[in-house]
Amino acid sequence: MLELPALGWQSIVIFVVFAVSLLIATYCTYAERVIAAFLQDRVGPDRAGPYGLLQPLADAVKMFTKEEFFPGGANKALFVFGPCLAMITALMSSAVIPFGNNMSFGNNAFFLQGIEVNIGMLWVFGVVSLGVYGVMIGGWASNNKFSLLGAIRAASQNISYELAMGMSLIAVLMISGTLSLREITLQQSVAGEWQFWNIAKQPLGFIIFLVCAFAETNRTPFDLPECETELVGGYHTEYSSMKLGLYLFSEYVNIFVVSAVMSVLYFGGFNFPFQYELRDWLVSNHDWTLAGAQNLITLLGTVGLFLKIFAFIFFFMWIRWTLPRFRYDQLMRLGWTILIPLAVFNIVLTGGLILFGVI
Amino acid sequence: MSPIFLFLTFVALLSALGVVFAKNPVHSVLFLILTFFSLSGHYLLLNAQFVAAVNIIVYAGAIMVLFLFVIMFLNLNVDTEPHKPALAKIAAAIAGGTLLLILTAAMKDIEPLGMAAGATFNSQIGMVDQLGMKLYTEYLLPFELASVLFLVAMVGAVMLGKREVGERNF
């Protein structure tokens, strides 16, 4: 039988993961504007609170108090269902991400991870592939041509880039031999020997994954589904109030999750350099207990993982305010005729390197 | 029977009926996605995590997106739907009923593997490594042939999408 996640400590972890995802997504909206202002040499939001830090709160108040608008002829149930689905699928995938190693207090040991399943990577991939439904259903239910075009673009874009993304994941799977994200993280750092993060073994795979991540989260330069110069607002043209807020919000949750996945798969997850040396040094020179030192390492590792995630989120925003949008045929050509052959080549290359014992 | 099993079965049957009876084709597709989810829940109850995840990725995540994609293009209104003559409806009912009868008769005496007295059920059989071991030892040839077929299909899709000489898309 399948074991349900144990209640108690683990449920607190799940709740914290949920809260942290939402908090980070909230402040992504602020960070996006601050970074945009910095890159464009403007001031940016600075009115609400010190340094404009209360800006997300002000936005939330604005979103909630705006008029709920239903376009004529819209499918009402699906019109409401679309943004809900976008938010649900965005939040679901953070469940399997290992945000830290295990901690123990006396006899209570728990993992800083929602649920540990041995199909973690497939779970993330599956939930990401469901993410497009929110956009499609919302765009279709709006009964608007621009919305429908946005929905259709989103569907074909996600299907196309999922292929290359899946194949770049297969290469990671080949060198790790497991689908569990926790196992993949632990393999990237082994006590007492030189072990490189997966980025050193999979540079090409990482680049493919990164490009696909931009396309899957509908971020510039691949934000064709909401391309405002052609489609007004794309799939969320007709949305107002908090329903629009949920769409915008789910995009930031997606960025957070995909940044976390990239950090875990390619950048060592919660590992940081010389962690085992630090632990042994604390135990031998400062009379720490092994469990206490391990707890400290786990906390530092979690901080390290979040630093990696923030670096990726910054990268996403940096790209957004740097590169112009692709044209639709360019997007499709990049996906099908460049990324997919590259991903197949990467699999063959990885297989060859494993066969000859290089990695 | 566990309450989770009963709940999943209830959802699966209800949403499967929804697929057939929904007037709006988009609703039908959404009900079908819900059916796939409850089937994945059943796979999880059988401890077949890999099959559950792949079912979601392939059916719910890819094939149904394409279904929805096509249906959104079509303008399927109730009044444009052609009405079949009564004879065709009766013939369809008889043919479908016969198929149901034959399937029920054929499956009536089946004894599921592992349910026989004294048989042991390997709870790890649905895990990824066990499945991979089976596929790469006992079923190597069919598995490899299938993967070659998929690769050919993918290369074919890329070839079809390639720009022809003199063609401009913009």
UniProtKB/TrEMBL annotation, chain A:
Give compartment(s): Cell membrane; Membrane
**Matches recorded under InterPro entries:** NADH_UbQ_OxRdtase_su1/FPO, NADH_UbQ_OxRdtase_su1_CS
Chief site of localization: membrane
| This enzyme's EC code(s) | 7.1.1.-
Q: Which GO terms describe its biological process?
A: aerobic respiration
Q: Name one GO molecular function term.
A: quinone binding
Protein topology in the membrane = Multi-pass membrane protein
Q: Name one GO cellular component term.
A: plasma membrane
What does the record give as the function of this protein? NDH-1 shuttles electrons from NADH, via FMN and iron-sulfur (Fe-S) centers, to quinones in the respiratory chain. The immediate electron acceptor for the enzyme in this species is believed to be ubiquinone. Couples the redox reaction to proton translocation (for every two electrons transferred, four hydrogen ions are translocated across the cytoplasmic membrane), and thus conserves the redox energy in a proton gradient. This subunit may bind ubiquinone.
Give the similarity note: Belongs to the complex I subunit 1 family.
Q: What is this protein called?
A: NADH-quinone oxidoreductase subunit H
UniProtKB/TrEMBL annotation, chain B:
GO cellular component: a single term: plasma membrane
How does the record say this protein sits in the membrane?
A: Multi-pass membrane protein
Annotated membrane-spanning segments are 28-46, 53-74, 86-106, 139-160
Q: Which organism is it from?
A: Hymenobacter psychrotolerans DSM 18569
Q: Which family does it belong to?
A: Belongs to the complex I subunit 6 family.
Q: Which UniProt keywords apply?
A: Cell membrane, Membrane, NAD, Quinone, Transmembrane, Transmembrane helix
The entry's function note states:
NDH-1 shuttles electrons from NADH, via FMN and iron-sulfur (Fe-S) centers, to quinones in the respiratory chain. Couples the redox reaction to proton translocation (for every two electrons transferred, four hydrogen ions are translocated across the cytoplasmic membrane), and thus conserves the redox energy in a proton gradient.
Q: Which domain of life is it from?
A: Bacteria
EC number(s) in its UniProt entry?
Answer: 7.1.1.-
Record GO terms (molecular function): NADH dehydrogenase (ubiquinone) activity; quinone binding
The compartments listed are:
Cell membrane
**Catalytic activity line of the entry:** a quinone + NADH + 5 H(+)(in) = a quinol + NAD(+) + 4 H(+)(out)
Q: What class of enzyme is it?
A: translocase
Spell out the protein name for this chain: NADH-quinone oxidoreductase subunit J
